Amino acid sequence: MTQHDHEPLEPRAVSRRRLLGTVGAAGLAVGATGGAVASAAVRDEPPTALTSLGATRVPFHGTHQAGILTPQQAHGHLAAFDLAPGAGRKQAAALLRRWSATARELMEGEAQGGGRDTGIALDAGPSSLTVTFGFGRAFFSRTGLTDQLPTELAPLPEFSADALDKDRSDGELWVQIGANDALVAFHALRALQREAGETAKLRWQMNGFNRSPGATSHPMTVRNLMGQVDGSNNPKPGEKDFDARVFVPASGTPAWMAHGSYAVVRRIRMLLDDWDKKSLAEQERVIGRRKSDGAPLTGGSEDTEPDLDKRSADGSPVIAADAHVRVTSPDTNGGAAMLRRPFSYHDGFRDDGAPDAGLLFIAWQADPLRGFVPVQRKLDRGDALSRFTRHEASALFAVPGGPGKGEYVGQRLLEG
Question: What's an example GO BP annotation here (predicted)?
Fold first, then answer.
């Protein structure tokens, strides 16, 4: 990989306080596996935490779109749009051109051009803002591009535990926004929604959050709303099969998806009242990991591989047969793996007083039929954690590779 390919993993620090000399800023951002990445440069005065957080910038251009390998941010928005009646390929291309220009400006920390900026994020730096775009299956028929429809974008199978709301599922166009400042993230969401104009109408929109950078004394994997360390077994950049699992190869088909990925999006409500009634030991049995540090029940640290063959004194497996870590292990799924980059969400309280809260699950893979689908089928057949979750929305999107200089996202599809 080139230096440019690594930039989303280590956002560059930019200064708004000095225009002369060598200026940098130190920043922390929660990583793709829940860790943290520091970006620092020499400067003659130490930055404040706010300046550090706001100063980190992620490039818009690159081999892959930003928001896949970028260190995970504290605030996120997901939105799906459908093209308006009468809109086709020409209008979609114009929209992606506008959206890409807006994303580039805002990710640079600039005001939206043409006097269109609302001022929502005035005074803030880019704050590791990323904007990622994808296409749903229906987009290809709407734009007359069915000959470019990837086979990997086949509808996901139905799973017995699903209780999906069709109004909050699927979509022709998808936008993922992440930032370490809530106003910066909302500013991007609002700008893109305004730019959609009469071309595309919002289908659904969801808001999420993660732990803020610097909230812990040292880099740690994030926790979900069950209090569990979430992301311990993610594939990691640098592993020999990482790119093959996550990204479409340069020689892949269709050609416009080279260096792209497929995103499975699921809104998973957690039955937190039921979960909180379980003892610590019961919770750890369900997951197969210690709650305190994420280490497998078979010992070691969070990064230790679970010993699925280890037995307790009475001969029973230390990690139960239906424990989540066993059911999802690549070793029990023919090597199937995906890069999970979720956000937590909380949408208030239901009529029964239970929190409407859980996980905005986002999984990246080169092929959902080899990544998400076999793992979810296994979960569907017998995962102890499924008794405490409800899958309420689902979508699958083709996310093309990153744009080159002067390109907009999707240009190779829409103008190829």
Answer: iron import into cell
Tokens matching residue 76: 């996120």
The domain segmentation of the chain, as residue ranges, is 60-416
pLDDT, position 49:
54
3-state secondary structure of 139: helix
Task: Return mean pLDDT, the chain.
Answer: 88
| Predicted pLDDT at 7 | 43
Per DSSP (E only), the strands in 200-248 are 200-209
| pLDDT for the residue numbered 369 | 94
Catalytic residues: 230
Q: How far apart are CA 374 and CA 367, in angstroms?
A: 11
Phi and psi (nearest 5°) for 227? 85, 5
Give CB contacts under 8 A, 24+ apart, made by 314-322: 319/288, 320/285, 320/288, 320/384, 321/382, 322/382, 322/383, 322/384
Q: What pLDDT does residue 383 have?
A: 94
Neighbouring C-beta atoms of residue 293, cutoff 10 Å? 13
**Interatomic CA distance for residues 109 and 373, integer angstroms:** 38
For residues 15-24, one letter each, b for 16 or more C-beta atoms within 10 angstroms of the residue's C-beta and e for the rest, the string is: beeeeeeebb
Q: What is the pLDDT of residue 233?
A: 81
CA atoms within 13 A on the CB side of 335: 6
How far the first Cα of the chain sits from its last, in Å, is 25
> What is the enclosing helix (H) or strand (E) of 414?
helix 411-414
Amino acid 185: pLDDT: 98
Q: What is the mean predicted confidence (pLDDT) over 208-237?
A: 90
Element (H, E) at 105: helix 89-107
**Both tokens of residue 178?**
């992440």
